[in-house]
Amino acid sequence: MRIISVAAVVLACACVSAQTPASDQTGEPPKFDGKRAFEHIERLVAIGPRSAGSEGIQKTRDYIKQQLTAIGLTPVEQPFEAETPIGPVKMVNISARIPWGSSDATFRVIFAGHYDTKLSKDFTFVGANDGGSSTAFLLELARVLKGRKNLEPIEILFLDGEEAFGEWESGNTWGSRHYVEQAQKAGEVASHDLRALILVDMIGDKNLTIKREAQSTPWLTDIIWSAARQLQRPEFVAVETPISDDHLPFLQAGIPAVDLIDLEYPDASNAYWHTAEDTIDKVSAESLQAVGDVLLAALPGIEIRVK
Ligand SMILES: [Zn+2]
Question: What angle do CA 293, 240, 1 make, to 5 degrees?
């Protein structure tokens, strides 16, 4: 992704044993566990670089599917071929729906993030935060939501091809653009089946500061920031900044969408962003916990709003 103003900052972005049941014997939904999410990042980083079309991203897909299956979800692949500056690249979005009352319901709230890492020829880029944190967060969120009584059908969406092959302007966000195009062809956009998109990207920074993304749907942003305020989470600040990311194709199609992203990694210097420094020691379970707690606190308000 990329900050739209001034500097061309792009972002792309981020296992755990799945033996823990989706809910305990009391029937209480499981709590979001930042440590479990952090362990997913460790497993992803151990795979190595995971750029679109690479052997590493194939292993990442296997890991995502294995983890989703282990918690009782059914991963669905959406393969496509993207025309990129380096030629055609095979990409695959992966989604999983949380089982819901009416099994044939097509409407849903979507939690999404990208699971590819930026291609780097000059150094080994493992994307602990950028690509790793979003992937890991969604896996842990899926486990929690599987055990929650959701008011709306929920889809967990792992997007391929967010990163550019080179400069951001040369092409980006292939996975989200393909997903929205397919939803449009299926009539799901016209019928408002895609009720809302909550996108996460680079949310693992130890020094986490999430600004309000300026293009995001105001009511959706307001609900999340209100939840953060009630939980007294200082990571969510009132400052606004515009960032290009996977939420834009959804917004352009008229779908309410919000992007939660910290594009100052670790600070305004951006020294760790798209560099060999984006490693496991730069991210923390506490930051993942903060985002998990806030989004789960915000979810009831979102569900009621889109009903
Ligand atoms: Zn990136």
Answer: 80
